[in-house]
Amino acid sequence: QSDLPLPVSTRVFTVSNQKGGVGKTTTTVNLAAALARTGAHVLVVDLDPQGNASTALGIDHRAERQSVYDVLVGEMELGDVIQRSPENERLDCVPATIHLAGAEIELVSLVAREQRLRRALDRHLESMERPYDYVLIDCPPSLGLLTINAFVAAREVLIPIQCEYYALEGLSQLLRNIELIERHLNPDLRVSTILLTMYDSRTNLAQQVAQDVRDHFPAEVLKTIIPRSVRVSEAPSYGQSVISYDFSSSGSLSYREAAAEIALRGAPQPGKRS
Ligand code: ADP
Ligand code: MG
Questions:
Q1: Whether the predicted interface score ipTM is above 0.90
Q2: Atom of ligand 1 at shortest distance to CA of 26?
Q3: CATH code at 16?
Q4: Least crowded by CB within 10 Å, which of 33, 134, 144, 184?
Q5: Where does residue 157 fall: left (phi above 0), alpha (psi -120 to 50 degrees), or beta otherwise?
Q6: In a domain, 197, yes or no
Q7: What is the domain extent for residue 112?
Q8: What is the number of structural domains in the chain?
Q9: What is the best residue among 17, 48, 233, 252 to mutate for testing ligand 1's pocket, by most ligand atoms within 8 Å of CB?
Q10: In a domain, 110, yes or no
Q11: In a domain, 274, yes or no
Q12: What is the residue with the minimal CA distance to atom 24 of ligand 1?
């Protein structure tokens, strides 16, 4: 427990980058666990058919379980499919199952197909006596309808960037897409947070990339950098965040620091753009 400030209203983040393997899921899970550990009530929405975030939180996401698929494509309410992570009583998860792989196509013919997650989430938050402090949505590595649903449901975008040569490539496309969503579907959406991940301080390249990203996005990049660490990559196979798996490891420490920065910065001012 610590005394980080809790947000006055729910902060909804989509963790997004159309590249795979950049640390989206790892960041979602570990930030969520770190925030829950400081006393916040946190929901992770797993929107990737792979279900890696569900696995990492120790959540059952076998095909026969009800999941976010039944909310997006079916008639289920979010509250009916939420499971509590065994790791922390304040950490909940909406699991993804493999059925979600077909949802991109099934959603196409549905009414308000871009708004399905937002409406389900809003209904659920309104029904709660004490709504979540944070909702983190883990996106698949694509810009299809699942990711669009995440962008429409969120107010903030968190972009994890891997400190390697191609990091900035593709970022401008992601930012253009976010701008399109902002213009047409969700005027409140802001890129509030950029997190440098898998940093190897021994290489000049990683330092150079980190500096480049900071030069481009001075306001958004967190001070904290997540180092490359074996403990971080081991934790999911135990169905745990690195915070629970090895509390004093460098990965746990850095994710706890990143969570503190996010909490202390607070939500972006409405209407204000950087
Ligand atoms: P994404 O969700 O963007 O596809 P993941 O979060 O699944 O990316 O990460 C990709 C791989 O990199 C995973 O095997 C994960 O365990 C590993 N990984 C992520 N962050 C770190 C880190 N800080 N140190 C070491 N390995 C990491
Ligand atoms: Mg992932």
A1: yes
A2: 6
A3: 3.40.50.300
A4: 184
A5: beta
A6: yes
A7: 11-265
A8: 1
A9: 233
A10: yes
A11: no
A12: 228
